[in-house]
Amino acid sequence: MSEAFSQGESAGESVIASGYVGQFARLLEQSPDEAVLQPLTDEDFIRYAIAEGKRFQDSFEIIALLKKSYEIYTGLKALRMASYCAFQMAKEYFSLGEIKNAKQYFNYAVSLYRHEGWTTLLWEILGYLRECSRRDGSLKEFVEYSLEMAALPVSSGDSVAYKECGPAGPPSFQKREIIQKEVVGLVAVESGFPSSDVEKNLRITGDSPLHLEIDLVSPLRVVLLASVAFHEQAVKPDTPAKITVSLLSHLPALFEIDALDVQFNQSECNFTIQNSQRTPSAVNSTSQDSYRVESAPALVLSTDKWLRLTYDVKSCRSGKLECVSVVARIGSYFRICCRAESPASMEDPPLWKFEEHVESLPTKDPALSFSGQKAIQVEEPDPQVDLSVDATGPALVGESFVVPVTVTSKGHSVHSGELKINLVDPKGAGLASPREIEPYATGSHHVELLGISGPDEERTVENSDSIRKIQHSFGLMSIPFLNDGESWSCKLEIKWHRPKPVMLFVSVSYSPQSDDSNALKVHVHKSVQIEGKSPVLISHQVLLPFRRDPLLLSRVKPIAETEKLPSVPQNETSILVITTKNCTEVPLRILSMTVEGDDNALGSSCTVRSASNQHIDIAGPNLLVPGEEHKKVFSIIPITNTSKVRMGTVCLTWMRDSEYLSPADSDVSGVVTKHRLPDVNIELSPVIVSLECPPHAVLGEPFTYFIKIQNQTELLQEIKHSLVDSHGFVSSGSHIDTIFVLPKSEHVLSYKLVPLASGPQHLPKVTVTAARYSAAFQSSATASTIFVFPAEPQFEMKRVESCPRSTIRAE
């Protein structure tokens, strides 16, 4: 309605003044003597308010109405109408001379017009902003708005249907050229004073130079666009790499640049391109003394036409070399810094994206225009140092595994060398998991680096100034200076607490030229996977005495599977057989095997000792080849009435056979592997059945076979026994009967047997049943076997003075 309102309208002639808020009404004359009041509609009231405001030039009334509309449209997310109201408010503030308020609402509206590409509206609003900057003396904003207006895609025909064009006048190509020349003339003045009366409030001096930033989202990308492309993807240090710097401008007239500064993330690669047609000023020649200076025949940008410049860049540092920005210098005090863009990811400015103009590529090579990047990878120089990591064979749990590392110079001198060691789980699960640690593992790490020993002295990670240990899986050590052809070695000491594969990474970094910390570093890497394995598998077996079988009630009663524990009779000697199996590919030496008791649990409850009262044998350490088993027999004697006791812990001392020197070496120390034995139940046997017979028999000669039944209770025991004949013997005696054994007494059954065949023969099978407990006893096949000689054997005892050392095993 504000746009459609005409000054000739008389919408307010019949509206009377309000006596109170909201009382506006229209006075209608019905007759000369009669008049009525008609309430106003919203449309009539708005027309009346605008008419009154414009008639009396009441800008505050108009601003109040527009501000209310602006707030309502903003709340409704109607951004276009909100921007339009903000634009109208800004023009009213501008007419009142309130520049600060005008710029606030101009800036709100201009952001939407830039985003949606309303070029004619942009021309008008930028003209207002340019005039606001001129009035308040803001040089930077004046130059920015002027350059943006000069680069807008507008022509003379764009303002035919648009009545108001603002302070800048109607948009045209000629007007754009005038604005460009005005700005260039302002910033290119060497003396720093304005050259015309138009710029009286705008000054550019050496004390306050002007610096503009153009990033990827800046509206000034239409003014100057910088594309940078390396011709290669990777390059060696100190090797030239070609780079093309391309500039594009949408300004209407020629845009001449005095010099270009091409800046990289490695400052030593920065260089300056000087316009050979311009004489460098004193400021330009002294401000960039450290830059390499190149020259170009001319640095002149034509409208919508790429300016391509190709030069060589050389980097002496490995890593990523990236062009950061391109700075255009015009005059002594004006800079435009453009963020460098890669051709492969560069987009056209939104305002010019759909305009009719000649499109060209930033580089002559079309492939480079679609794939070129502003960054290049500077590779490390080829190392001339050999790194050797000698990890032979698997590592065994519990031992200190030694890995020799050798650094040999083969062309480079080693300055400021460092040796880094990393232990990594190849599966990525980590090297520390307390829930999976073996019971006797020290600490919470499966694998840890214990230390590093140098070539001349033993040095650990903890006690050397040149070594720093950051974590259990990381080590750092300095390498002394090495000339060409020299070598240096050390030994890594790694310990496994549980079987686990580990990837060992060893890297050497050094400077081939000097000890300067900023000098080029060369890296050499080596990795090797080491398998951590358990050296031995320890198992055990609890046996009852040979041919003496106590009745254990736990074997008669049904017990849950989870509650089953080995049971041994009280006050009886049981047999504990410890079996050790070599699980590795390397031969081992068993130095000793003992069973240590738990002071808190065992004490005087149970005694476990070697059956032979010796650790192994008198022949020395036992050689255990891969896959071989070693057994040792211990005796268990429970001596208390407790129902459950701990047998203790097996302590096996071993070492690699390659490290074993001689049996006479008293300083031999091995690795201790521990295995905790399970708890055992202690039971008092009510009945014990024993079989007694000679160790061997002779064919045809009779011998006595005894069956002893011992009652250890205070009750009378009813015992049923039976004997089944064997084909290898003739027997005499009671074959089936029932007897009663008095409390705390023993009953003996005797049989006469005559062997009928030689060789191993099975004795007659005996079955003894205790009626009170419904438990039957049958002798095992091993206990019922006896060897029968065909004739009386002749044994000769002979004293052996000396014999070679041998290994004796308990089978």
UniProtKB/TrEMBL annotation:
Pfam families: Foie-gras_1. Transmembrane segments: none annotated. InterPro entries: TPC11 (IPR021773), TPR-like_helical_dom_sf (IPR011990). Residues 8-151 form the Trafficking protein particle complex subunit domain. This is Trafficking protein particle complex subunit 11 domain-containing protein.
